[in-house]
Amino acid sequence: MQPMRRFPLDAAIVFADILLIPRALGQEVWFEAGEGPRLGELPSIESMADQIEASTGRLSAIGETLSRVRAELEPDRALIGFAGAPWTVATYMIEGRGSDRSGARTYAYQNPEKLDRLIEVLVESTARYLVMQAKSGAQVLKLFESWAEGLAEDVFERIVIKPHAAIIEKVRAAGVDTPFIGFPRGAGALVENYAAKVPVNAVALDTQASAALGQKIQAGGKTIQGALDNLLLRAGGPALDARVDALIEQWNGGPYIFNLGHGVMPDTPIEHIERTIRRVTGK
Questions:
Q1: Residue 101, CA distances (Å) to 47, 115, 116, 187, 259 in order
Q2: 125 to each of 59, 76, 145, how far by Cα in Å?
């Protein structure tokens, strides 16, 4: 709520660590100081499948958080719910830590059936998690595929496009019509195919997205979001002003949610954020 109180932003997003789902499914998760997350041995698919129903209850604190934030926000400001997408979550579950994902990608080639079964479990658990978030007050749901880069087209279709579409189908089948934003970060040329095949309402774009790509997605009837480099926001100066103006100009012809191409860097000067918001909103 702090940035919502400080700045005239249109929406808040509640983030929760994406490794909460593996933990809820029975995989050990801990953090090493100065290094990051660690995960224990990958449980059997059967044992995780047995935990799907119970996993949603283990994530109830996130629902409570969303309810509290929704109650604090003004009615005209939206609340966005969030989940890590199946492939990105699977990379940590397979490798046991953050990495360059080479081990998980190799696993995808060597063990396609095992990966598909793991993805199926994650699709079901993630769909239930997002339904819970919508019922707790989230008015938009966002799927973060943070590690979508480097995948061959056929693999991208199998482990990104199809699982995202399946999650949305399951959420809709549960009677939830909350809009979806999909974020296939780093997918490059494959983003256009993602936008065409996944029934999201909006596509979040990373910093490499071209003007033409965004315009094609807009022309297809979908909203776009993002693309400002978070390192440029941290750097500030005339280059930041110029890029903000360029993004607005190139995508002003269709629905565009101004945002970053990834999260705010912790050491970003507050005055750079203030300056950017004033430039976008005039407030």
A1: 24, 14, 17, 14, 26
A2: 11, 31, 16
CA 103 to chain centre: 22
Alpha-carbon distance of 17 to 83, in angstroms, equals 8
Closest CA to 132 of 178, 91, 187: 178
Look at the pTM and tell me if it is higher than 0.90. Answer: yes
Q: Cα–Cα distance between 190 and 15 in angstroms, integer?
A: 26
Mean pLDDT, range 20-30, rounded to an integer: 97
The pLDDT tens digits of the residues spanning 196-245 come to: 999 999 999 999 999 999 999 999 999 999 999 999 999 999 999 999 99
Neighbours of 283 (CB within 10 A): 7
Question: Which residue type, as a one-letter code, is found at position 69?
Answer: V
* 101 three-class SS: coil
Nearest to 136 by CA among 199, 82, 183: 82
> Are 23 and 84 a contacting pair, CB within 8 Å?
no
Contact 58, 128 (CB under 8 A): no
* Residue whose entry in the numeric block shows the structure tokens 């909103």: 281
Cβ atoms of residues 160 and 148 within 8 Å: yes
- Give the residue ranges of DSSP H helices in the chain: 2-6, 20-24, 45-50, 52-58, 60-72, 86-95, 102-110, 112-135, 153-156, 162-173, 191-197, 211-219, 230-235, 238-251, 270-281
Q: At a CB cut-off of 8 Å and minimum separation 6, what does 174 contact?
A: 127, 131
Q: What angle separates helix 211-219 from helix 238-251, to the nearest 10 degrees?
A: 30
- The pair phi, psi for residue 180, each rounded to 5°, is -115, 140
**CATH fold of the domain at 2-200:** TIM Barrel (3.20.20)
| Residue-range domain boundaries for the chain | 2-200
